[in-house]
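Quick entry, no commentary yet.
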Amino acid sequence: MSVFDKAKDKAEQVIGEVKEKLGQATDNRDLENSGKADQVSGEVKETGHDLRDKAAGAVHDAKDRLHDDRR
């Protein structure tokens, strides 16, 4: 995952936390729920990026093993 993607995902989670707490403090359920949704969205994106990176690493490792076996 690029550093930029990771920062965007974390920022979305932090913004969500702030919105949720602000919604709780002002008794604004819509803002609170929007904040919760932002947090979940950021977490899902981060997980997706992590899985993509792990899959790319596994493919790279498999290619290396195949290359080494051919020697």
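second:
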Amino acid sequence: MKKIIFLSSFLLLTILISSEACTTAVVSGKYTPDGRPLLWKHRDTWALNNKVMQFTDGKYAYTGLVNSTDPKGKSIWGGFNSAGFAIMNSASYNLNNDTITQSGLEGRLMKEALQTCATIDDFEELLKGLTKPIRLESNFGVIDAQGGAAYFELGNFKYVKIDANDPKVAPFGYLIRTNYSTTGKMGIGGGYIRYVTADKAFKMAVKEDRLTAKTILQEFSRDLTHSLTNTDLNDYDVISENQATMVMFQDYIPRKSTSSSLVVQGVKKGENPVFTTMWTTLGSPLTSVTIPIWLSNKTHLPMIVSYDQTIKDSPLCHLALELKKECFPYEWGTSSKYYMNINAVINADHTGTLQVLKPLEDEVFGLADEVLLKWRNNEIDYAEMQDFYDNLDVVIPKFYSTYFNLNLK
């Protein structure tokens, strides 16, 4: 019986690691080109359908990533508030050396943090007040408008703060967490290969002074290199579009289970938190487009990231997941998630999903950077913000219809 119980526990842990395999990072503003901190969450989960919601039910207004099956937004899986405080997490599997049942309520804690916290110190006070055992095992990444940037590795009975502004622990100004904690037992948990892949990419970006939200989302969330096998799937770009080519796709940063990716770009100390921007990619990063999200009660969120009752999802996520089917056409057996048609992603004819979508996304980033620069130098123009959103609602669905024959109706 003991062997059966142990085996069941092992299988459960394996399932959790494979389904909650996020790759995340906290970046100090001291090491970014514009001096603003960054918070990255590349989300892997069973909940593939995601949307964005905006709330006013706390001390601070806030916006965040929500499962499309969560109509009231009871759990937030990454977001920021009107004070410039932002939070996300990655599940950890090497902190709690006990048999205490976990609650799985990381999203509830993050919602409470967004409702009540203005600074990293506020979040630490929130953690101190939690009833023990906490029934959580997670790495919470946070930034604030005061220049703060840190992880809190939280287990059942304690937490440890790791500061991205401390050169002793973050010599290059960034911290990365996958599915283990540095204060836990090393060698167990998950994401060690993804950690090394991400670390290589971050180090090079720091060296080249291009550690930006765009770099993270366009390159790291779509990184097709494997740090253990030294495989680079970009080498398949010499194959023509009509030659479907299946490749093993396991332990890369993007995965079949990736549901979204976001980077919260914070503000400099003394800068108005209203300029905090959540660059958001819903659905698979291999088939989606990143758009900026700002927090305002004078505008409404883009319809493409908001819940649509007809499709039971956000339109952007829906389109990205439909297109994703071309990348993962093999569906036989539980191991099917490890095989991808690389030819649908990149090819010699430049008709792969990444190749077709990049020019549109480059344009979105460029236009967003222009309006942000103008707003920072003057004042924020909410009418212009709404026009920007409304334009996205028209252009992006039309793009998917034109180039991929995918329609919302």
